[in-house]
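Why run this: before we spend reagent on co-expression, it is cheaper to look at a predicted model of the complex and decide which construct boundaries make sense. The entries below are exactly what would go into the expression plan.
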Amino acid sequence: MIPEPIREYSRAEQVTREDLILFLNACFVCTGQREFYSDADAQRVSIEFLHAYILGNYRLLYARTLAAGVNDFNQAEIVLNLLATGRDTPFEHRAEENSLITATLQMLPPQRAWRLLEQIRQRRINNRRSRSLVRRFVAGREEIAFDAVKYRSKVRAAAAHAHLPLGKTTSARTAELGRFLFRPNRSEGTPIFSTALFESVRQAHYRAEAVYELPYTVAEGFAAKHGIPRDVFLKRIASQMTDGEKLRLQATAERAQSAVPALDPMRLSLTRLALYVLSLPREKREAFSDALRQSARATLSRTGGQTVLPALGRVAAVLDNSYSSSGSTEKRQRPLGVALAVHLLLQEAAGQGHYRAFWTLPPRPAVMGGGEPGKPLSIEARGQTDLATPLLDALEWGAETILIVSDGFENDPPQGAGEVLRVFRTCLDPRRRTTIIHLNPVFNPEELVPRALSPHVPTIGLRGAEDLATAVGFARFADGAMPLEGLESHLAAQRDRFLERVKGTGWNPSH
Amino acid sequence: MEPLALTGLEIAPSQVFGSIRLVPLLRRGGSADLRLSRRAYHEDVAIVALGGDDRSGPSLAYFSYVPHGLVLSWSEDGTAAEAAYGGQIEKQNVFRLDQSGFSTARMLHRMVKREAPRRLRFLPLHMAMEGFLSLFFGGPSIAWGEYSRQALRDGLSPRSERVIFGPSVRGLEDALRLFEIHDRQVGVLIFVAEALASAFVTSDPEDYRALHPTLLEDFYGDLIYQYGQFYDTTVPLSVAIEDKSIHQLSDLRAAADRVRAEWGAFHGFQAGDLIGRPASAQTLYSAGPFRIERFITDLDPARENHIGEMIRRDGTGELMYLKTYRLSAAQTRRVYLLSQLAANEWNLNQTAAALGTDRNGLTLRLSNAGFGYLLHPEILAAAHKSEWIARAGGGEGQ
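The model came back. Tokens follow.
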């Protein structure tokens, strides 16, 4: 039998593959905000360079990364960059690019989608495609009246910039939208709106009762205008709050001695909830352990973690809670929150005895000077980064899969875990029986990637625990074993799934 | 002279930020019977009265910007001492320096001042600097004719040195902010571009955490400032594990521990011009079982020289507090010349012979070092003239 000739991969293909991995990794995690070791400017310059570089060299793949699970910030950046350089799109790729852009805008959370449309104006992007995108997005929004009230300045900016014919159409719906956005006080005939929400806004200027029909952020201003006492306002507006707002206002409501809005942990993002719990004093945190467990369970079923994570076998997590995991003023405790959320998720996914967490500095016991070890919820960001010791503990425990969550800056000793990983891979486990993945919640602008611990272990950017399953799935590409075709077909498959999901929501852009 | 030692401390691997390398020092056992806390001073100038009485004003005073003092409390019997946080019982002695009233000054009585039983206040680093400035302060012990009348009357007074304020050292602020403090950490060695800038040790980890930001308010030598400007990075260092000897996980763990120990040992070696260096120490105060001392290394002009202050436990010699300042080359040279003069009873000819030069050469060296005011103007003029003739003559000869 003649063996199949082994295909030589050209240097160009290798470079493309490396570039793409680098870009995807950066896009998973970077949000252009300040981090512990670097400021916002450095982050911005770095990620903007990456976007410009990939857009210029691999336009189609750049568009496809929209479907690869990159974070909202980078999705918006990609859409804006594609819209700004529309004339460079080859004819045969136009349809695909357009459908990806439209689908992305549809999948983004409303506040981020409207922000994107506002940025189209700020960056002075104005072409037929961008105007059509805005037009179809506005036409496709089911609750455009709600959006117009809650995101008024953004909707107005988008409508004006895209020349939406709001007043001239025969549709009463959009005609009133135009009047609400642009001429709320100048009515031809009656000042009364027939759209209930618009009418509530009009009335809220005069009638305190109408305030409670508005979205919370809008009502806040009117409440101040009418001088409604804080506790009364918070109690009555609770039904209008989003889940994120309820979480944010827990402490405020407590201070105002109003009823604290009830949380629905099934709907809340696990990472956000974990970050909230970490912001509390240590003795108040245990009260949230059930909510966190429920949230973790809901996250597992929502993100497909139920199938991916138990397949990892005996899992150990090496979690970095050094001082640098306290994040920055813009991302308070984010790395620590991600580590805690990953811990909760793995605990929920793995069966009893199949999972163990190894912190760099284990939580302090509740009683000073001993007793039982501290609960993971009482974890704090403090101390040096010693990843080598917990990593060795995890290896000795006999883990089949080790997930390291760390920003990659280790200093006790420097490169300690890197050396342990190198020697372990080359001497003790050359066949790679133990899977080791480094998940990094921090983008390092100097290297243009999340900082790696060792070249022997793939490093994946991880912005929230919700993306854990995606990140673990992506690790095989970052490992270096997969050729470019594999990565390309993976991106194509993700694109198909992504577009399918949008279709599944019943949104029809041509409407 | 006895060598300096980090008794009771161990050195942990360093953390690097730009050109700054911070090396944590950890304490082996807990000892809570000596505590330090910070007391902030907000005035532009502090005037520390060193001699004379209060009514007629001080006959000798130390002027400097002093951003904070340290309050030391201890217990005699080894029980835990209370850190005097926020305590302020010092007599407020603040006044305006000028008519416009923009600059303020604070009078302080003595470098080390007892405030209450088992509690005293001292001015960190200024204690050492004052000791440095007052070395050979009295001037010539024999009224040789070569010295100026001022030198014979007032000695070296006024004697001054320039230092650099912490925030001016590039990168130091960020490095201190981003540094990850260990749980058992009580001290730090600060390297700028691999030159030891300062060493700081407290008695208790809690105190260290509170005093860590004060490192920015300290002063540093001008060499450290220049190194901060010149260099962006440190020398890249790494310690590798030898693959050959690893056969199982326990080997790997032992190797990782070894790597950590090697880092510590290496940093000890890096700070070799301070640790283990012979230094002459002077006891300032005996506080129960502790001794407050200031020291200066042996003034070998070929090596780095440090001045500093420390608190050691009697008997065990455990280092409870340490703060050092690295002298610049010019500062070392100045005090070296003075020490040579003093050793030769301020006789210029004898000192010149000891230094391997002649009288004019020594005169010029003193003048260049900033001590021209000590010498009689005629002596100075003669030295400059002979130097000029030697140069001109050398030119003709060619």
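The longest strand of chain A covers residues 435-440. Chain A touches chain B through 29 residues (CB under 8 Å). Bring this page to Monday's planning discussion.
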